[in-house]
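Dear colleague,

Thank you for sharing your sequence with our group. We've completed the structure prediction you requested, and as agreed, I am returning the results in plain text so they can be pasted directly into your records. Please verify that the sequence below matches your submission; if there's any discrepancy, let me know and we will rerun it promptly.
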Amino acid sequence: MYIWLPPSEGKCAPLSGPPLNIGDLFAPELTHARAAVMNALQLVSSGPRAAHILGLGPKSAAAAAANLRLTTSACTPAIDLYTGVLYENLDYRSLTTGISHLDRALIQSALFGFLRPTDLIPMHRLSIGVTLPELGPLTRYWRAELARHLPPFTGELILDCRPASYQSAFPANQAHIVEIAAVSEQTGRPISHMAKKWRGRVARRVLSEPAFDELHAPSDIVALISQLPSESQNAVVRVAATPPRATRSGGSVTRVVLTVRAPATPSARPDLSHGRDC
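Please find the predicted structure tokens below.
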């Protein structure tokens, strides 16, 4: 089985490390496609409309400058670069048995397509919803490139922690997908921030499973997720899974909805940096 993760807007720029070697990344067949996105991104980032095209607000507009140094900046493993809510709750550095299963995780990137957690990449700012003038909408661009160069993952079991925008760029309709959503106990409405949190925790739970190599069906993952209420101090109050929905390409989609209880009072997010520089 595989675990598919999204990137995160939050990143920790490395202070040292080697420069990018694009040919060493996962699926070197994507090298040409990656180079095309890098060139288009650098062209945009050097212009006066960079913040507008990249969807950056006033506080993050300066981050576009990082895109001008993609080939010279220090690189770090992708799983260390990303620091968002999902990655805080995955907290891979504290894994023991699960660390050996990280090679079954892939991270989808708007800049690089798909990456291994250990692939060395530089600081950058780009989301899948961006339209680069030279390439068009990135969702459409990567849908074509990934379909052309990646295997279809026929029959594979995949815990899909990606949001819909990234799923649409590579839907993997021939695989057996398990998706995670979170809704509020109080309102019954989806909570995107909490979904990120619990996708990270579900990914951690699956990676930590001693019988990881024996997970072969969506029901196996659902069974692990169903253990979360007893492990989460009542934060998850209910787990409901839909029956697998068959796709036209021979795969299936199982959607797991976690009903979560919001904390009574706001609390500080835990420090999971483990001594990193940001």
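Summary note from our side: The first strand starts at residue 2 and ends at 5.

Kind regards,
the structure core
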